């Protein structure tokens, strides 16, 4: 059964887990949309989508859902893809 404190911690952890899972899923979805825009050579849409992705990555890293270096690495790789598209 566990103590009341342990039960509360379990409830809190489940709630946080769901919130973090949803946030990570949102980021992955936005990244997929960006990659789709890059694949279809749509530079304007890719740029606007990248803005959203960067904003979300900054948010999740600030909240500790993703490590700040992980967010920075992802942003760097996405910017590389956009710059490669712009160079064509």
Automatic annotation (TrEMBL):
<keyword id="KW-0687">Ribonucleoprotein</keyword>
<keyword id="KW-0689">Ribosomal protein</keyword>
<protein>
    <recommendedName>
        <fullName>Small ribosomal subunit protein bS20</fullName>
    </recommendedName>
</protein>
<dbReference type="InterPro" id="IPR036510">
    <property type="entry name" value="Ribosomal_bS20_sf"/>
</dbReference>
<comment type="similarity">
    <text>Belongs to the bacterial ribosomal protein bS20 family.</text>
</comment>
<feature type="compositionally biased region" description="Basic residues">
    <location>
        <begin position="11"/>
        <end position="26"/>
    </location>
</feature>
<dbReference type="GO" id="GO:0005840">
    <property type="term" value="C:ribosome"/>
</dbReference>
<dbReference type="InterPro" id="IPR002583">
    <property type="entry name" value="Ribosomal_bS20"/>
</dbReference>
<comment type="function">
    <text>Binds directly to 16S ribosomal RNA.</text>
</comment>
<dbReference type="Pfam" id="PF01649">
    <property type="entry name" value="Ribosomal_S20p"/>
</dbReference>
<keyword id="KW-0699">rRNA-binding</keyword>
<feature type="region of interest" description="Disordered">
    <location>
        <begin position="1"/>
        <end position="26"/>
    </location>
</feature>
<keyword id="KW-0694">RNA-binding</keyword>
């Amino acid at each position: 059964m566990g103590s009341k404190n342990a039960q509360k911690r379990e409830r809190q952890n489940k709630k946080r887990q769901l919130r973090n899972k949803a946030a990570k899923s949102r980021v992955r979805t936005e990244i997929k949309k960006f990659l789709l825009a890059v694949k279809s050579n749509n530079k304007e849409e890719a740029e606007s989508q990248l803005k959203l992705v960067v904003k979300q990555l900054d948010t999740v890293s600030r909240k500790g859902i993703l490590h700040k270096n992980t967010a920075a690495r992802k942003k760097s790789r996405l910017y590389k893809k956009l710059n490669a598209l712009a160079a064509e």
